[in-house]
Every structure is written in structure tokens, then in C-alpha cells.
Task: inverse folding
């Protein structure tokens, strides 16, 4: 079984559906409200676990009722929660999500996710060293992300970095990462100066660029686009997370980049067919059935 460790965020998603997005200063009536487990790190962990990987999570929850619900949820999915710390006096991370007009908008309040520290990474160096693959996102402090990259690369662990929500990161850290998985918008922001653009040109093979329903682009000396699957979309929240979780599972199993991207696209397509980031995430069996159709 592939050993994957996710170091990242855990949120409770507060999901409202409405016919339209409210304008500035406007109050409107919505259609439904649900609390659904989310957070980019947690979503990627659940995606990988549902696909059969052995997943460990390093992160933080607060000392509120959401924490218990989210820990129970991880345990139900067989994710190792031994390295998730409860932070006294802090709220668990939440994301306020509105789904309307075939799109969404999201406000994340990080809460306990901000307490995922470089010291925690040092404390759990053995867990990182024993992993085959590490998945990282940008919803925990940047100094922690850079520490994970330093420790994981020291131990030769494969690192997948999903730079979302995008913000600046050092070139030294990017250099040590094996795969960087921005969408096109995130890529543009990531390459915000000449030095970074030059880095991109000389390290193209590290970048796997998601392009929504179009598919995923990668480079191995030549440009490739692995096309996406056309499905009826209910909610795109977590589509990228499903892709990243699946990509990690396939790459860790030794699949080719092309095959891993195709697998990730299938998982992403199935995930958007239901409301909620994790609700539609498929099992391996469901992905096989989908690909056989
Ligand atoms: O990528 C989707 C996720 O972003 C949501 O689950 C929300 O919690 C935010 O972190």
C-alpha cells in the first residue's frame, strides 16, 4: 500500500447554495445550508485514502465541536490521526462557501491551521522520512511548508506541492519539490518575476498544470495535454484536491505521469458530480467502473 503523508489544513466547510451570488451590501435568500468536512489538506488525504493509500495526516484542529466531527470523519476513512494536534483556545479552520451561478466563492478562516509549525515538522521527521510521498498545499504557514520540503527532500521522499491558495514561495524550496500542481491562474501568480519565469522555463518537467474541464498539461521535453472527462457538474469545490490526492496515489504506485494525470482527471470528474468537496470522491472500484464505461 502506498504510504502517503499529507501536511496541511483541516476545515469545516459551511456550504450555502443560492440562485445567485449576493452583491456587495445585499442580503438574499439562499436554498440550502450544510456543514461538510473540507480543507485542501484534508480533502487530498481523504481522496488518497478512498483510493486505497495508507494515509497519515500532520495538522491541527481547534478545541471546538467541529474538531471532533472532523477527527471522527478522518478515522472513519482510515486516516492515521496520531499526529493531529488539538490547539487549546483556537477555533478549527472553517471555509464559508457559496455555490451559485454554476460557480463558487470561498472565504477560509484558518484558525488552528496556523499552528502547524516548523517545530511540529521537526518533531515528526521520522513520519515524513518513512513516507513514500508527501502532499503539501498553501493553507498552513509558509515557514512550515518550507521546513517540510527541507526535511522530506533530505530523506528522498517524493514531494507534491499544490500551491493553493497561491502566494509567494522561495525558489530554493521549489527547486527541491518533485511536482508542482498549480492551475493556470495560480501558475501566473507563482511566476511573478523574471527569476521565477526563468526557473519555470528550466524546470518545466516539475509542473503539472490543471486546466479545469480541459484537462491537465505536463512537459517531458514535449508539451502534453491529458484531456478531462465531460460530466454533469454539481459542485467544483475540491476538484483540484481530488486530482492531487489521486495523482499522489498513482505516482506512488509507479504509474507514468500520463497515466497518473488521466487517473487524476477521472477522480476529479467523479468528485464534481456531488455537492461538497469530499462527498463525491470515488473509491478505486468506482474509478475503474467509470474508466471502463
Ligand atoms: O479546495 C477546496 C477547499 O478549499 C474547501 O474544502 C475549503 O475548505 C478550502 O480550503
Result:
Amino acid at each position: 500500500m502506498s504510504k502517503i503523508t499529507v501536511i496541511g489544513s483541516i476545515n469545516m466547510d459551511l456550504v450555502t447554495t443560492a440562485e445567485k451570488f449576493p452583491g456587495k451590501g445585499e442580503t438574499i435568500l439562499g436554498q440550502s445550508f450544510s456543514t461538510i468536512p473540507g480543507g485542501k489538506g484534508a480533502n487530498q488525504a481523504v481522496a488518497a485514502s478512498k483510493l486505497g493509500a495508507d494515509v497519515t495526516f500532520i495538522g491541527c484542529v481547534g478545541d471546538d465541536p467541529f474538531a471532533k466531527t472532523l477527527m471522527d470523519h478522518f478515522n472513519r476513512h482510515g486516516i492515521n490521526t496520531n499526529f493531529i494536534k488539538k490547539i487549546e483556545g483556537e477555533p478549527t479552520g472553517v471555509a464559508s462557501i457559496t455555490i451559485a451561478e454554476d460557480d463558487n466563492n470561498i472565504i477560509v478562516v484558518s484558525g488552528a491551521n496556523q499552528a502547524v509549525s516548523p517545530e511540529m515538522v521537526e518533531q515528526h521527521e521520522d513520519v515524513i522520512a518513512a513516507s513514500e510521498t508527501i502532499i503539501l498545499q498553501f493553507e498552513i504557514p509558509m515557514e512550515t511548508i518550507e521546513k517540510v520540503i527541507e526535511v522530506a527532500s533530505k530523506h528522498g521522499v517524493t514531494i507534491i506541492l499544490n500551491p493553493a491558495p497561491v502566494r509567494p514561495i522561495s525558489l530554493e524550496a521549489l527547486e527541491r519539490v518533485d511536482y508542482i500542481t498549480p492551475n493556470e491562474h495560480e501558475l501566473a501568480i507563482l511566476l511573478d518575476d523574471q527569476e521565477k519565469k526563468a526557473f519555470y522555463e528550466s524546470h518545466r518537467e516539475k509542473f503539472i498544470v490543471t486546466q479545469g474541464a480541459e484537462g491537465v498539461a505536463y512537459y517531458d521535453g514535449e508539451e502534453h495535454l491529458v484531456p478531462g472527462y465531460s460530466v454533469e457538474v454539481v459542485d467544483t469545490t475540491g476538484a483540484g484536491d481530488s486530482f492531487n490526492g489521486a495523482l499522489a496515489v498513482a505516482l506512488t504506485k509507479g504509474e507514468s505521469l500520463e497515466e497518473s494525470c488521466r487517473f487524476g482527471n477521472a477522480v476529479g470528474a467523479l468528485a464534481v458530480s456531488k455537492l461538497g468537496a469530499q462527498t463525491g470522491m470515488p473509491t478505486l472500484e468506482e474509478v475503474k467502473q467509470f474508466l471502463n464505461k
